[in-house]
Design goal:
This protein has helices at 3-13, 86-98, 115-132, 149-158, 171-177, 183-206, 231-245, 272-287, 292-295, 309-316, 330-334, 341-350, 358-363, 368-371, 389-402, 427-432; strands at residues 45-46, 52-53, 56-59, 104-108, 138-142, 161-163, 218-224, 249-254, 323-324, 375-376. The protein is α/β, with parallel strands linked by helices and 435 residues long.
Amino acid sequence: MDLEEKLRILGGAARYDVSCSSSGVRRAGRHGKLGDCSSFGVCHSWSDDGRCISLLKVLFSNRCIYDCAYCANRASASRPRASFTPRELADLTMDFYRRNYIEGLFLSSAVWMSPDHTMERLLLTARLLREEKGFNGYIHLKAIPGAGPELIRQAGVYADRMSVNIELPSERSLRLLAPDKRKEDILGPMGDVAERISANREERKRFRKAPAFVPAGQSTQLIVGATPESDLRMVELAEGLYRRYGLKRVYYSAFVPVSDDPRLPRLESPPLLREHRLYQADWLIRHYHFTCREILDEKHPHLDEELDPKSSWALRHPEFFPVEINRADYETLLRVPGLGVRSARRILSARRVHSLDFEDLRRMGVVMKRARYFITCRGRYYADSRASDEEIRRRISTRYREAGGMGGKGQMPLFAPEAFGVGASDALTSATGEL
């Protein structure tokens, strides 16, 4: 099989892994080296000036010894199989980079022969790129569940980011749909990487020239809709992963039916709206200081399809509102629908000079279509803001649908601030992930 055919097969096989966004690392250009890994990363993300950042995203192999029901590359699937060699993939990455097609590499793999064998192949590819090819760009490597800790530790020296995909949100679902995998094989490498990242930070404080270990942190992916777990379970798991392992991101991937296995649900289409709501809830936890139990609980185990999670929380807590813009502290401002992190900071800065009115808020990027129902300025409401909860809900959800949001079956708009429940200045960041 020639290299072009391998690339076609293994590039297509990688499309189901969404945990490829990168950020938080800076590796400046060096004499005699190729590539420059900027702070906003690569991997289909967006730079500060709006540019799309590209990467080579492939599987090392789609030959798998496991037979996970939800996976397109499972052992029993009838599809063309292929595998790179480490040198083939290293050469291919350099050829793509020299032609300015990519700025980095996202490398995952099916479990080929054994976890250790697969992880060793990924490690050799990264080592070739760094040591022989002099590649200084971004590398995201998948840590293979079940691989030996020493292999993963060695790979972490060459990678900017690593990820171990949990995929299924409970051990029960793992036994049902992926009986070849064990919970310990997934959480073990995740814990080992987290521990080594923490130790490396302390080491680099004492020895500035000590090699970095996974400087952009680690991430994981959860599949949405393949199993019956509630949104509460998904968000609670993500919150625990952030707290325990210091993950940079949890990615959510709407389940795409790839087989007629009777263990899988029958869906008319992937649950894209649910995926979108989970990302919004995740954003509130990471950047808006919400906890899972504030967003969801046993009485409300599923995210509202009509409203973003912050607006839904606000309508369930009328005692918290209205918020007086000229007196509220930062934490309180973050709870207001339509206010983002940046607009909240701008409010705190601007009101040191003068008292703010509604026009000032609009200029700062506050989404008044949402915020107007939950705030006062100088003790006054905005126009007809004293509506009932039912009326507010109707207006907000109607505006969301009219904005072209995913309230229906259409594609989520990238530049519509109303779709995110945050300030307009934060909308692009919410849409594209970490920058």
